[in-house]
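Notes from the pairing session

We agreed to fold both candidates in a single pass and log them together. This is the raw record for the first candidate, unedited. Please don't reformat it; downstream parsing expects exactly this layout.

Candidate A
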Amino acid sequence: MPTLKESVYELCGELASEFQDWSFVAGLFKNKALKHSTRVIDPGFSFARDSTPLQPAIRIDHKGSMSLFKKLNGYEFPTSIVTFQRIPQLLTHFPEKLRLVCTILGDKATHISSLGPSGGQALEQMIDVTEARPVLRAMLLDGIDLIGRFYDFSSEDSFLRNFPPKYTTRSDKSPYDEFEGHKGVMVCIVHALLGDFDFTENYASDRYPTIFPKRTRELAALVAALPELRDSYARTGVAR
């Protein structure tokens, strides 16, 4: 008898084949049709005890920005990532009651019996693996739609110049965070790729306020590399 992970992965592989240029690899839906970026829909699977959360996010892996980030910091970070939980009001296919919390179960009936009379609300956010196909398909439809709405892929230059994505979050308690933490560092790297090095110096300074603490180590590495990046851009038109 297949495990829940095996069943879900098989289902995801079947669903990916329904969408042109999409595949399911190592727990992620990927579209590699572009030379400069991979479009990703991450279901957010984390299998344990015959269950997994379904916490989708859209992600863009732009090769140039991720390569520079790794060169400076020694580890990778996606160019862009936006979770469904931040923008549930923008979804049109994913079931409304599952947009903030969703769990896929290998045997929902067993879980129901263990919840007791007070588990009604939790039950609404659980689906059996046999119910997962339409939910996962809705996730793909919304993910593909959001990627098309949030990013300009008419050219690599257009993608970079229209970065980061602009959107409204579900509430003030979930602030727009595209200039926060690692994401803020990636915005600086994208500016550097476009030849704008002043943005990084301004962002790293006290003149640029953020909601959450900045990633000072990563910013320091980028600031230290600016002379080399400026020289590279002046000579070759590429900051690297």
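Candidate B (folded immediately after A)
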Amino acid sequence: MDLEAKVANDQNAKVTTSTTNGTSDIPNTSNPKRILSQHRDSITSVHIHAQYGICVTGSEDCTAKIWDIESGELEATLKGHTKGVTDVRFNNSTSTQQSKIMLATSSHDLTIKIWTPENGTETTQWDCIRTLIGHDQTISNIRWAGENALLSVSRDTTMRKWDTETG
């Protein structure tokens, strides 16, 4: 009973945080700015691009979706995987040599797909320019490791480094 009373008290409590001007009380409630709800199954991953106002979500519905962060509008649905998407990752390169934005998606179908927008960033059409095949079990996680290098880890107990230009 003591624990129940403490939980009820905590649920009604306010969180106090410090700011540059002192403290502010933030209610312990969730009021999201946007709710993105176009997937037909569980969302497994999300990644926000560092420069552009877009984010990507991956789902068990075998798709990745590109969203405009400010408006919450769906900009593109990427279809190509035959099983659920496990991870999504923009290249986030801010290098002046990087000529185009790229997105990598991994899946339970044992593939990694590399996507680019058809005409730069102002488009709703994304093309799969490469499919990377080599893991024997589900790919758990992917990370960009440079302009044209991608790392992947899998339940097959391997980590692979991929050249995204050559595959």
